């Protein structure tokens, strides 16, 4: 017999597809109570409460048994089972189960699929939930919560529809919803957005007024800050467009299967976060179960935060593994779908972006294991729809002295809960010897961490609880390890002592691992063993609860256990053995990172890899190498720090070398700065001039791309001064090449060419072909500025050949993009188009977002000059999607190409706005070339708009600046535009003189524009 239940409406039972009525009201109430908790035992007391509340008759229990018996006759004997003082309904054929499964599936899909699944889930609702069930208790509790859950899902579906642009269709539905739920603010917010996006701004403003008036009259309060901000944005016409590519992060660790007790606290914290409290801080001593409690609450609240859950272990009490706020913010932003190269460099900018990303979303943030308020404060988004759950050993008073913030102090388990937790591991051994079990709980301080370890030990050793307690009370090992009678240390010692000698050795050495987690490969490198041996030993440590397997193939320590392992390795191992283990650890990470670099399409990694590595690496192709580099990024940073602390300078320099190009290409500029600053501090400390020069050069490059070219020159001067004291020829060539780029950007092409020629000679002498390719490409850029396009073409083509020979496809793509501009200027339009399209394809294939963005900029400018405004706009939008937030130079270039696209489409106001934005940003940053380009763009816009005299000022400014900095091609272009403006202003003679100067320059440079200027001269009297 097949039985199906429906409770999202009137209660329905289907047996073999036919509706079978449950006529008796009490039976419907019993069945509803069991269905609302399907799969879980519902106690007799709960069922009696659902049936009669506080007015239970003396025959209530007998009556309940009668109702259960009649339901069994109707549904089949095996549907409702007796279990542990109550009853359980064992079926998943319930519309509520189907509803929740559809909602769960919707969370990790595309917007279109999410909308479809949420609609399908909501279609299961046939009316008011269990409308025909009469039970005060159920309607006040379970049914009320279920109705709230249904409304949450409805909100989610409406949000997705808004994201998909279905605003017009939603207006009618939302008007009905705000009438039915007059104080549910998100429905009002959605109605305002739907009206505004339907070009009904006035009505959207009236909706806000109606809601504000109703709130004031009924409750004497005002709408939330979030809704007032939306009202202001609608008022000034600055509401953000619907989001695209919404990513729903689901970062919560798995729920704790043996979670015991704390239900009152779980309920309290859940209620706080669900009813407007923005932040809850859970504090308590180490090992008391703060993380388990936070994870349990977060899993319970997942459905209330449908836009995702973010989680991070802040490792507050493990300095070596502790991430910086910037690293955490960057991780969160990437989890929310922000491309890596769009993540800002500074913590303030990252925090601002996080607030923007979360401003319209409901996301739960779990910040585990914080050390102080300063570590947490930048991570709090302070947006209306989000909530934050923090755990810490300290109270964090600086955070809790604010409204919408609550503190929860967590103490040790009660004796009853401690015994229940022990029973999860040892079963009937607890009731078999309650006295010894209670003694064990006391010895463990009723701490969950210590109890879990003790329980795992008993289960593994197959001893009795009393035997284990005797060992804890009287063992010499405890006496040797106890500090102030520490119960946790006693539990650790007992567990540690039961391990095999090999597992104890691995556990000790794992205390040297600096990063937040590790793999079997790391474990094998530490003890110089095979991978199989390390994996088996890790299994033993996991079984003993001394390490956690938190992801597939990845392990981590509780902070207390990490500290304990570090103590043990110092106490039990010789200094030379510790040094050897550190050497193995560094060697393997360097070997793996270097191997990954050889598989990636970046500058060839030519340094010799360590030979002492016994095991290989966990990847064998490009995709695996890239995934490994991303997965291990935090650990690699920690290993760099370990090399610095341990004085392993050769390892340190090699790590910087192997990681720098990869991190830079992926836009991980924050990580780049961290390793460069660490390398510089070490280089200065050991007085290594070559390393000092290289680190200053790295920092100079970061300073340049962040928008401070003059600050970059200061760093490059330091690099050159250090290089004079002892850098290698190759290091000096690298610094000269990089420094030339800044001089080029500032318009000093003569000095740039001088530096590039010197660098090229050095590279040729030391046979550094890849570096020579870069300097030849850079020479091509400098010669372009001087208008020497034939020489520029020769250098670019040489750079392309050299890069191809070396397999440096990232450089190859960059040089192709530069060659495209040269070909265009020389009149080879098809060659230009082919080169830039190949550059875009190469960059996309290699994942070079920054280079691809600039190639799209170049292609967009080419299309705009050909009059293809739509094509130019398409390229500009692609560039905007790819360019990094930290790349100010690239962002200014994107603003300029948007201006060119709008100009080609005759959208003059937008063009003018883009060019002005670019000019202001370029002037502030010192980007001379961009400033000249923006000024010429404004002059062209003025020419089209007829605002001639203002445009003449822009053209003259561009010409003067280009002339001052030797940017001859821009000077000639400025003269060309100025002549057109002078002609329109009636100054024909001056226009002819200006064109004659432009023509002479274009002819000398061999640029195709010379013909257009000659035509103007021929047609002007």
TrEMBL record:
Gene3D superfamilies the record matches: Helical domain of apoptotic protease-activating factors, P-loop containing nucleotide triphosphate hydrolases, Tetratricopeptide repeat domain, Winged helix-like DNA-binding domain superfamily/Winged helix DNA-binding domain
InterPro entries the UniProt entry points to: AfsR-DnrI-RedD_regulator (IPR051677), Apaf_helical (IPR042197), BTAD (IPR005158), NB-ARC (IPR002182), OmpR/PhoB-type_DNA-bd (IPR001867), P-loop_NTPase (IPR027417), Sig_transdc_resp-reg_C-effctor (IPR016032), TPR-like_helical_dom_sf (IPR011990)
The TPR repeat boundaries are: 773-806
Q: Write out the GO biological process terms.
A: phosphorelay signal transduction system; regulation of DNA-templated transcription
| Cited Pfam families | BTAD, NB-ARC, TPR_12, Trans_reg_C
GO terms for molecular function, please? ADP binding; DNA binding
Q: Which residues bind DNA?
A: 1-101
State the protein's name: DNA-binding transcriptional activator of the SARP family
Q: Write down the species.
A: Allokutzneria albata (Kibdelosporangium albatum)
Lineage summary: Bacteria, Bacillati, Actinomycetota, Actinomycetes, Pseudonocardiales
């Amino acid at each position: 017999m097949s039985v199906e239940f429906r409770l999202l409406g009137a209660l329905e039972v289907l047996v073999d597809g036919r509706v079978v009525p449950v006529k008796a009201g009490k039976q419907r109430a019993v069945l509803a109570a069991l269905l609302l908790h399907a799969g879980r035992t519902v106690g007799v007391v709960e069922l009696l409460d659902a049936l009669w509340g506080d007015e239970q008759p003396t025959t209530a229990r007998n009556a309940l048994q009668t109702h259960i018996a009649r339901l069994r006759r109707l549904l089949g004997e095996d549907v409702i089972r007796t279990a542990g003082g109550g009853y359980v309904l064992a079926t998943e054929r319930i519309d509520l189960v189907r509803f929740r499964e559809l909602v769960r599936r919707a969370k990790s899909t595309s917007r279109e699929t999410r909308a479809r699944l949420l609609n399908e889930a909501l279609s299961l609702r046939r009316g008011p939930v269990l409308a025909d069930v009469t039970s005060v208790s159920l309607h006040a509790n379970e049914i009320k919560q279920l109705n709230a859950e249904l409304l949450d899902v409805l909100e989610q579906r409406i949000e997705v529809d808004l994201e998909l642009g279905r605003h017009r269709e939603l207006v009618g539905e939302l008007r009905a919803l705000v009438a039915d739920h007059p104080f549910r603010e998100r429905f009002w917010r959605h109605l305002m957005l739907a009206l505004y996006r339907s070009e009904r701004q006035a009505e959207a403003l009236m909706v806000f007024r109606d809601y504000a008036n109703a709130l004031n009259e009924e409750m004497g309060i005002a709408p939330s800050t979030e809704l007032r901000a939306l009202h202001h944005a609608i008022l000034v016409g600055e509401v953000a467009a619907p989001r695209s590519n919404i990513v729903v992060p689901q970062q919560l660790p798995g729920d704790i299967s043996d979670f015991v007790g704390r239900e009152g606290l779980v309920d309290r914290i859940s209620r706080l976060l669900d009813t407007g409290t923005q932040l809850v801080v859970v504090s308590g001593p180490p090992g008391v179960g703060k993380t388990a409690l936070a994870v349990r609450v977060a899993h319970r609240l997942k459905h209330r935060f449908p836009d995702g859950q973010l989680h991070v272990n802040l490792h507050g009490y493990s300095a070596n593994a502790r991430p910086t706020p910037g690293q955490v913010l960057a991780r969160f932003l990437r989890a929310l779908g922000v491309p890596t190269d769009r993540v800002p460099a500074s913590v303030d900018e990252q925090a601002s972006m996080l607030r923007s990303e979360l401003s319209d979303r409901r996301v739960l943030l779990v910040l585990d294991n914080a050390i102080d308020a300063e570590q947490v404060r930048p991570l709090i988004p302070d947006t209306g729809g989000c909530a934050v759950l923090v755990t810490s050993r300290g109270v964090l008073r600086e955070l809790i002295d604010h409204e919408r913030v609550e503190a929860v102090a967590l103490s040790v388990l009660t004796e009853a809960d401690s015994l229940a937790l022990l029973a999860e591991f040892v079963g009937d051994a607890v009731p078999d010897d309650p006295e010894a079990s209670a003694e064990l709980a006391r010895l463990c301080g009723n701490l969950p961490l210590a109890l879990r370890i003790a329980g795992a030990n008993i289960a593994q050793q197959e001893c009795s609880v009393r035997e284990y307690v005797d060992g804890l009370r009287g063992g010499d090992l405890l006496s040797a390890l106890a500090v102030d009678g520490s119960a946790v240390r006693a539990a650790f010692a007992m567990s540690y002592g039961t391990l095999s000698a090999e597992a104890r050795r691995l556990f000790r050495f794992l205390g040297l691992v600096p990063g937040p987690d590790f793999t079997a490969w790391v474990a094998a490198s530490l003890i110089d063993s095979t991978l199989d041996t390390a994996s088996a030993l890790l299994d033993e440590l996991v079984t003993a609860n001394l390490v956690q397997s938190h992801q597939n193939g990845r392990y981590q320590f509780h902070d207390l256990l990490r500290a304990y392992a570090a103590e043990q390795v110092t106490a039990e191992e010789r200094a030379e053995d510790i040094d050897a283990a550190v050497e193995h650890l560094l060697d393997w990470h360097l070997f793996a990172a270097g191997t990954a670099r050889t598989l990636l399409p970046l500058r060839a990694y030519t340094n010799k890899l360590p030979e002492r590595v016994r095991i290989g690496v966990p990847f064998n192709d490009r995709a695996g190498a890239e995934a490994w580099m991303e997965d291990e990024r935090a650990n690699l940073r920690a290993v760099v720090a370990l090399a610095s602390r341990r004085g392993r300078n050769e390892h340190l320099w090699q790590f910087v070398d192997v990681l720098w190009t990869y991190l830079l290409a992926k836009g991980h500029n924050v990580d780049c700065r961290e390793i460069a600053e660490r390398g510089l501090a070490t280089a200065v400390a050991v007085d290594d001039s070559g390393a000092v020069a290289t680190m200053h050069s790295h920092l100079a490059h970061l300073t340049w791309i962040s928008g401070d070219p003059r600050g970059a020159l200061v760093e490059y001067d330091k690099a050159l001064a250090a290089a004079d004291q002892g850098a290698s020829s190759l290091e000096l060539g690298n610094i000269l090449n990089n420094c030339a780029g800044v001089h080029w950007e500032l318009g000093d092409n003569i000095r740039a060419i001088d530096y590039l020629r010197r660098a090229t000679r050095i590279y040729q002498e030391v046979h550094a072909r890849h570096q020579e390719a870069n300097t030849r490409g850079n020479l091509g850029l400098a010669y372009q500025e001087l208008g020497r396009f034939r020489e520029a073409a020769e250098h670019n083509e040489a750079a392309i050949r050299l890069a191809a020979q070396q397999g440096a496809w990232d450089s190859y793509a960059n040089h192709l993009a530069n060659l495209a501009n040269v070909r265009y200027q020389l009149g080879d339009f098809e060659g230009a188009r082919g080169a830039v399209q190949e550059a875009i394809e190469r960059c996309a294939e290699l994942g070079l977002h920054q280079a691809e963005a600039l190639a799209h900029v170049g292609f967009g400018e080419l299309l705009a000059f050909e009059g293809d405004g739509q094509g130019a706009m398409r390229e500009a939008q692609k560039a905007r999607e790819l360019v990094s937030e930290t790349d100010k130079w690239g962002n200014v270039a994107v603003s300029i190409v948007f201006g060119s696209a709008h100009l080609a489409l005759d959208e003059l106001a937008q063009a003018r706005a883009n060019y002005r934005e670019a000019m202001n940003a370029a002037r502030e940053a010192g980007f001379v070339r961009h400033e000249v380009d923006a000024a010429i763009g404004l002059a062209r816009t003025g020419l089209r708009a007829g605002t001639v005299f203002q445009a003449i000022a822009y053209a003259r400014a561009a010409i003067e600046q280009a002339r001052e900095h030797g940017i001859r091609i821009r000077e000639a272009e400025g003269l060309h535009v100025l002549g057109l403006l002078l002609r329109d202003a009636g100054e024909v003679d001056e226009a002819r003189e200006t064109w004659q100067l432009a023509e002479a320059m274009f002819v000398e440079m061999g640029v195709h524009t010379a013909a257009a200027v000659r035509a103007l001269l021929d047609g002007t009297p």
